[in-house]
């Protein structure tokens, strides 16, 4: 069964990278450009097996997205990985406080992304 | 990967544009959080992508830039003129680095060094406040692609005993113990035992509480750090104890992996994978298409236009009544064809914004180089024009902007003395006017010093000292080759490239350039360009029974020559007197080999053609038929280059007509008429 991942990033390059890494590893991907776009996608699609999101995005940032996702009953247990170039612990703490499951520090290798995903989706 | 790389660089262009826009907004006085954030995000995204491709120069510069912007975002750095200037320079360097990374050219730190130092100073100033430390530990290092964990047969195996007790928060954050146990299994064989001691009776069970713990035995070559890495995401969300059992020999009995069945059905509402299409849905507002394909389409639409014109003529010839269905149908077809043609041309069109942004950089660099304070105002950036035109406009426009900064605007002191603000203004605007795109470059400088221009022109033998020229004629002297009024050749614009080159470049695009200046108020250059290079405004003429098209942009004026205006100059050269000047007359029919020169050209139609060097020549033709847009059809290579012929077109009646390159034709012919041309004072007063 193909695991479905929703990848949220305002950078097209990052979305492409994530999609390439995920498709190569046999995941199905949905893409969104920012938090609001992602929430819209989540209305349309069945709950994904994981969400990967950037933090710094226009309209609705990663923290806001995580909080909104966790507030939805159907999505409260969906693993959410945060993509960040800011490896500082402060960021991780904030992401976790918002309800993030884990994080991936950019730049990442496809294998790291997949590994982190496996860690949260089994 | 190459494709993503390409798309990264395209995205970089967009991000750099957003960066410029944001900085411009800040310069205009708006620096709310969102603007600063947008600027930050642009740099941040470039850094992120660059890191993924191992573009170290780009990453490290973007990092400093981003750190400074972050300080601004956090409020530890105040946005002053100096900071803003540094940010603009940072954007320029970033754009250079992106280009270098894209083209694979080496980076020259000489350009970026001072900017980097300036950024570091900003960061340093902010860091005194001690808050801009967040992103400082960014590691641009690449990490090995394959993580070969635990499979190293030569490494001694260890036996680890692990106690893992998740807290409620672990579940709330979307983590799942089962996944972690599976991840551990990748390090080596594991044996787990679920500890249910704290599990309350069912009626007392709070499903939000965490009641289970696990004892795990792991035999692995990996170190403790590798095990902790598995639990990285749940660090702080569980009790984790790891002990290495020294007494255990390496050969552990194969653990019972069936112990890995889920301890309890986890409250995984998402376990059932959605049956959605696995096709990635990529939201995209744009499609990238090879330019060749578009050109093919443009060409085909050109064919339709020609075909439609031929059809119209046939219908006309058939003498159908005006209200016949064929005619009204054709009318609609005509309208549709025009719409299609416009739409297809628009595919090749791009907003001039990217061009204007490049110019804002030129202004910054030019003004910094000569120590003038200059501000560029742009307008009509959304105006669209053919992609090729945009590309080929960059050089002439760059030159004009440098000229405006260098010669057009006065020094700050002179400006103050003249009661103007110290900061000079340059206005660059684009707009549509009667089916063409007009680009206007205006400065509020001193205007053209006509006495000086006149003196220079006399000094260089371009005009006679006693010539009487109108203001417009004097202004147009600037377009003569090699003309420069700069007293000192400055590093900026005095590079031997004159406005004549600019004019030639504009004319090659089917454009026209004119100049207007008012003493003390400034100078305005107006460039008028066709919307597309695929159609051309032409004058249809006949000579010796042949029909030809002459580009309208090359024609200064047309007239019917009288006997009184004709002068013979030697046996083979004719001149015409044109407003007290002599212009060499060429017989187009003879030049193209259609006929032998006539004895008498009185009554011929004459096209006056302006040349690059400001001189003019006249072409004698038989009749002027029409003025219309024609679709340019390239002559195939098999015909070779025909001097004086630029391309061909098909007229409405199906007739093929050659499109003349009058300048080329005249240059080729000048060999024979040189003595005359050299004698003729080289100016006309018509607009260029």
TrEMBL record, chain A:
Q: Which domain of life is it from?
A: Bacteria
Sorted UniProt keywords: Phosphoprotein
Q: Name one Pfam family in it.
A: Response_reg
Q: Which residues form the Response regulatory domain?
A: 4-121
4-aspartylphosphate PTM positions read: 54
Which Gene3D superfamilies does the record associate with it? Answer: 3.40.50.2300
Question: By its UniProt entry, which InterPro entries does this protein fall under?
Answer: Bact_response_regulator (IPR050595), CheY-like_superfamily (IPR011006), Sig_transdc_resp-reg_receiver (IPR001789)
Q: What is this protein called?
A: Response regulator
Biological source species: Sinisalibacter aestuarii
Which lineage ranks, top first, belong to the organism behind this chain?
A: Bacteria, Pseudomonadati, Pseudomonadota, Alphaproteobacteria, Rhodobacterales
User: Gene symbol?
Assistant: cheY1
